[in-house]
Amino acid sequence: MSGHSKWATIKHKKGAADAKRGQMFTKLIKEISIAARMGGGDPDANPRLRTAILKAKAANMPKDNVERAIKKGTGELEGVNYEELTYEAYAPGGVAVLIEVLTDNKNRAAADVRNILNKAGGSLATAGAVSRLFKRKGIITFDGEKYTEDQIMEAALEGGAEDVTASDGIIEVSTAPEDFEAVLNALNAKNFESMSAEISMVPDAEVSLDKDATSKVMKMIDRLEENDDVQNVYHNLEIPEDYEEE
């Protein structure tokens, strides 16, 4: 598993995801709006919008919220114009971090990201230095207490998935980005309820740090994720199975 998706599911199982549901919905609304603005409001003709809507459904976002976000993107309702930015950075210990931003004020977003990195002992990287360490993959996760790996594997591979792995009570399905929608639909058709479903940046290899350093990096990542302009944070830190958030 990627450190990012694994930590997301750990937090989900701990119940922390519910506390951040409002913030998560805000980020999903921004993603839906910009997808609609760039490719139109018809999901059938806009793959990025389809993917954003699938992600919103996996997060149990109400249909009305999705429809309003689309209308804001297409201009039917008044909305905000967002810019997309990606920052490449290093956290302490040489951990590679990709920070995806959707913002209506790029100067504010840049200052906030730099401030969070600097306070944690991190730094911005040159373009391409970090992104080359990741590959874009579709990642769908399931609760291993509800389903067996064999159950998920059969439906996932039939749908065109690349791999299915199980670890620490989480079953993770990985797909090529272009096959993500077909695999998710195949799993939904078998009535498997996913914990998360997204196209993510997965590291080619992970970096292992000691407990204190791991804690410092995770606190930095949490601060980035809590920023309203930050849409996604991906990293290559290996998170021990016994890691506990302080």
TrEMBL record:
Q: Does the keyword Metal-binding apply?
A: no
Which keywords belong to this entry? Cytoplasm, DNA-binding, Transcription, Transcription regulation
| InterPro entries assigned | Integrase-like_N (IPR017856), TACO1_YebC-like_2nd/3rd_dom (IPR048300), TACO1_YebC_N (IPR049083), Transcrip_reg_TACO1-like (IPR002876), Transcrip_reg_TACO1-like_dom3 (IPR026564), YebC-like (IPR029072)
SUPFAM superfamilies (UniProt xref): YebC-like
Domain TACO1/YebC-like second and third, which positions?
A: 82-237
Instruction: Write down the superkingdom of origin.
Output: Bacteria
- Organism encoding this protein: Gracilinema caldarium (strain ATCC 51460 / DSM 7334 / H1) (Treponema caldarium)
Q: What is this protein called?
A: Probable transcriptional regulatory protein Spica_1339
- Any GO BP: regulation of DNA-templated transcription
Q: Name one GO molecular function term.
A: DNA binding
Where would you find this protein in the cell?
Cytoplasm
UniProt GO cellular component terms:
cytosol
List each copy of the TACO1/YebC-like N-terminal domain by range: 5-76
Instruction: Just give the chief location class.
Output: cytoplasm
Give the protein family. Belongs to the TACO1 family.
What HAMAP family does the record tag this protein with? Transcrip_reg_TACO1 (MF_00693)
